[in-house]
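lol ok so funny story. i was supposed to be doing the assay writeup but got distracted and ended up predicting the structure for this chain instead. priorities right. anyway since i did it might as well share w the group, maybe its usefull for someone
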Amino acid sequence: MTGPTPGVVFNALPLDSRGGGVSTYIRELLVAMTAATTVPLAAAVRPSGLPELPPGVTPITTRESDGLARALRGAVGFGRCDLVHGLDVDLPVLRRGRTVSTVHDMAIFDVPSTFPRHRVAGERLLMRHAIRRADAVVADSAFTAERIHALLGRDATVVHLAAGTGMAPPSEQEVDRVRERYRLPDRFVLHVGNIEPRKDIPTLAEACRTVPIPLVLTGHSLWGHQPPAGAIEIGHVDVDDLPGLYGAATVVGYASRYEGFGLPPLEAMACGAPVVTTPVPSVTELIGDGAEQFVPGDADGLAVTLRQLVEDPDRRRELAERGMHRVRGLTWKDTAERTVSVYRSVGLEA
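and the output, tada:
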């Protein structure tokens, strides 16, 4: 790394081009931070995340790594700076300045059965270390802040996220392009996110079979969890294709049983898609009446709601308009400015 000693170094090691909620948070926050402060900024990234860094953030490139190896790299630290911000919890073991940790969820404590058993103890240890030692803790939602306090006794500042800057209603041409690229059916329910237990994709799939309507899944299977029979997998979707994908969907379904924030419903609403979701606290906190809701695990109830929406375009249109109105006030500019306020609260002149 060359240039002035950075005021803030971000641990951005989770960032890569495959997308996902944490990568979206890191990418969008870093872009907005370049306009929110004049403090020199740098970010530790793997080679796969380097193309995602915006101008104005100096890269600190590390070896490609994942899992425990990535966490250990973050624990070593990244050299001199005034403040280290762990954008996915992790902080250096040795303090060389002020520290801020962003916590996206407390799932490893709250729903450990949804993770591989060998990961639970190690991730809990790393999270306890970062959250207890950080000068300040940031949480994506009030729900996550409450869980941090209940489990570890720390107060956290709630800083909400926003839909990505490219998330807006797509043109008909863009929808047609995405339909052709991914060979999408004329009507379908869309789920965006990886295939893992917390997302409860089996309930969504059962409801779709009852309607009946095809279920399209993005992302990848985690830890050996396979998609339901009959679902259409399209794998990784480029970020630039997401608005068109949301626009092509008849309904966007989100059956999750636990979330720290819940970015896909927010993105879908920003793109003008009608959304059906469970009332998990972190999602309801932001979307309110901008989406239809159903009881977690209730495939029959979900099927009734999906059928009504599939058969009634006026109802879909009204729901989509409510959703767009609900999320309009959330911006990454506000997220960055609130983050800078956290830095100032720990003594950084930002």
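The domain at 172-327 is CATH 3.40.50.2000 (Rossmann fold). The first strand starts at residue 8 and ends at 11.
back to the writeup now i swear
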